[in-house]
Amino acid sequence: MLTEKMHVLQRGMTSVSCCCLLCSVWTLLRLLSAVKTESAAVNTTVLRGKSTTVNCDYNKTSEKVFFTAALSRERSLCSYIYQHKSWTKRPCEDNIRFIWTPETKEMSFELLNLQINDSGVYTCVVERQVPPPVQQLGIQTAFVRVIARPAVSTSCVTGSDGAPTMLCSSEGFYPAALEQVWIRDGESITSPNSSLINREHLNSSDARWSSSNNTDGSYSLTSFLHLPPTPEQVMYHCWVNHSSLNQPITVNISPTECYGKNKQHINEVIIGTGISSAVFTGIVFFVAVHCHRLRRKKTCPQSPVGRPLLPEPEPNGQLQTAVYSTLGSHRPVPCRNNSSRSCSLQQTLNHHTTQNA
């Protein structure tokens, strides 16, 4: 009797053990399905103005009724919510586009028209909201590095001392590391760090460098190479290398152009000086004539219309009749200059009185 009870007890304990084992396995499977999937970080290099994609890897086997996908870079940039078998857009930057492929259940964020300031670490997080609790289904991190190619150009300018000078400009590049070398007939005359390494062909010439930081985060580098005073039949090249280039850029420039442009600049300066002198002389002459006229007006004042200050006697007026009666048969002598004070009526009377005396 006791033996039978022991067998029954053993069978019961075995059943309980099996049930506990099954429960443990089921719980472990649930936990594994809920554990977040974090993929290795991806490094991406993109040219300025181009686009790239940040994939969102997550556990696709997990039950998903209501879940979200969000992209961030130090702050939230864009997020979408999946419910009722459709996606709803939440706050999102203008240059970010969400991509969803229903057949494979893959999702990603596309970054459009990237600029230098868009470089950084982007993180895509996929979370299941329902059924609770909230669980992370996947995290994908991508480091995006935006680079910019230099725009290289050469030109001829005139130095501060009036000497012909060649200019090589590399503008709008990123990152800052850049090599720029002057080459004369296939031989380097400056080193990438802008120090002269070969002065034999330059004689008294020299090179000067200047760099600047642009507002968009890029850099610019300009070098000035002063030419010898005597023209030479040689060819110069500006050689530029940067990490954004597939191969270095070489731009040719002939010093003959610079010498010709320098002579043209001197002629322009001479012509400009002559024109300025002529204009100044004309202004001085105009001022002198104007002052002379003002002096004449002060010594011989006139009315605003250029007529004598004293009014002309009215024809057949009482004043004219009284004057003519004292003169007898004489009449006033006409004035040669109506604007002179000698034309006044009082001077005419004095003249006649003197003759009678």
UniProtKB/TrEMBL annotation:
<keyword id="KW-1003">Cell membrane</keyword>
<dbReference type="GO" id="GO:0042130">
    <property type="term" value="P:negative regulation of T cell proliferation"/>
</dbReference>
<dbReference type="GO" id="GO:0007166">
    <property type="term" value="P:cell surface receptor signaling pathway"/>
</dbReference>
<dbReference type="GO" id="GO:0006955">
    <property type="term" value="P:immune response"/>
</dbReference>
<dbReference type="InterPro" id="IPR003006">
    <property type="entry name" value="Ig/MHC_CS"/>
</dbReference>
<dbReference type="InterPro" id="IPR013783">
    <property type="entry name" value="Ig-like_fold"/>
</dbReference>
<keyword id="KW-0732">Signal</keyword>
<dbReference type="GO" id="GO:0031295">
    <property type="term" value="P:T cell costimulation"/>
</dbReference>
<keyword id="KW-1015">Disulfide bond</keyword>
<dbReference type="InterPro" id="IPR051713">
    <property type="entry name" value="T-cell_Activation_Regulation"/>
</dbReference>
<dbReference type="Pfam" id="PF07654">
    <property type="entry name" value="C1-set"/>
</dbReference>
<feature type="domain" description="Ig-like">
    <location>
        <begin position="33"/>
        <end position="140"/>
    </location>
</feature>
<dbReference type="InterPro" id="IPR003597">
    <property type="entry name" value="Ig_C1-set"/>
</dbReference>
<keyword id="KW-0675">Receptor</keyword>
<keyword id="KW-0812">Transmembrane</keyword>
<dbReference type="GO" id="GO:0009897">
    <property type="term" value="C:external side of plasma membrane"/>
</dbReference>
<dbReference type="InterPro" id="IPR036179">
    <property type="entry name" value="Ig-like_dom_sf"/>
</dbReference>
<dbReference type="GO" id="GO:0071222">
    <property type="term" value="P:cellular response to lipopolysaccharide"/>
</dbReference>
<feature type="region of interest" description="Disordered">
    <location>
        <begin position="338"/>
        <end position="357"/>
    </location>
</feature>
<feature type="domain" description="Ig-like">
    <location>
        <begin position="150"/>
        <end position="254"/>
    </location>
</feature>
<dbReference type="GO" id="GO:0042102">
    <property type="term" value="P:positive regulation of T cell proliferation"/>
</dbReference>
<feature type="transmembrane region" description="Helical">
    <location>
        <begin position="269"/>
        <end position="289"/>
    </location>
</feature>
<keyword id="KW-0472">Membrane</keyword>
<dbReference type="InterPro" id="IPR003599">
    <property type="entry name" value="Ig_sub"/>
</dbReference>
<protein>
    <recommendedName>
        <fullName>Ig-like domain-containing protein</fullName>
    </recommendedName>
</protein>
<dbReference type="InterPro" id="IPR013106">
    <property type="entry name" value="Ig_V-set"/>
</dbReference>
<dbReference type="InterPro" id="IPR007110">
    <property type="entry name" value="Ig-like_dom"/>
</dbReference>
<keyword id="KW-0393">Immunoglobulin domain</keyword>
<dbReference type="Pfam" id="PF07686">
    <property type="entry name" value="V-set"/>
</dbReference>
<keyword id="KW-0325">Glycoprotein</keyword>
<keyword id="KW-1133">Transmembrane helix</keyword>
